[in-house]
């Protein structure tokens, strides 16, 4: 999975970049075909944004937290839930006669 990390307001630390790549990279196991991920961190009132794309599927979430690591954990939790739902919908569509 190709993971792009960007930020506005402050540069992400090496630990944050490493944790982001590790945690977002694991989301590819939920659904085949997820090719790219974009993670945007913003040090302002606006939430952090995570977008996953691949083969016609686009999943995104927005989260806000006091700490970037906490926001990353919340985003991964939301995305896991969305990917499980998407996987079940794709599986149901594939089994229609």
Give a description of the structure.
It is built from two helices and four strands. Helix 1 runs parallel beside helix 2. It has helices spanning 14-25, 68-94; strands spanning 2-8, 36-42, 48-54, 57-63. The longest helix has 27 residues, at 68-94.
Structure described in brief:
This protein is an alpha+beta fold and 97 residues long. It has helices spanning 14-25, 68-94, and strands at residues 2-8, 36-42, 48-54, 57-63.
Q: What assembly state would you assign to the polypeptide chains in this entry? A: single chain
β-strand percent reads 25-35%
In DSSP terms, counting alpha (H) and pi (I) runs of 4 or more, how many helices?
A: 2
From the alpha-carbon coordinates, what is the Rg to the nearest angstrom? 14 Å
Mean pLDDT: 79
Please give the share of residues in helix: 40-55%
Structure keywords:
alpha+beta, Double Stranded RNA Binding Domain, four-stranded mixed sheet
Secondary structure layout:
Blueprint: E1 2-8, H1 14-25, E2 36-42, E3 48-54, E4 57-63, H2 68-94
Parallel strand pairs: 1-2
Antiparallel strand pairs: 2-3, 3-4
Helix pairs in contact: 1-2
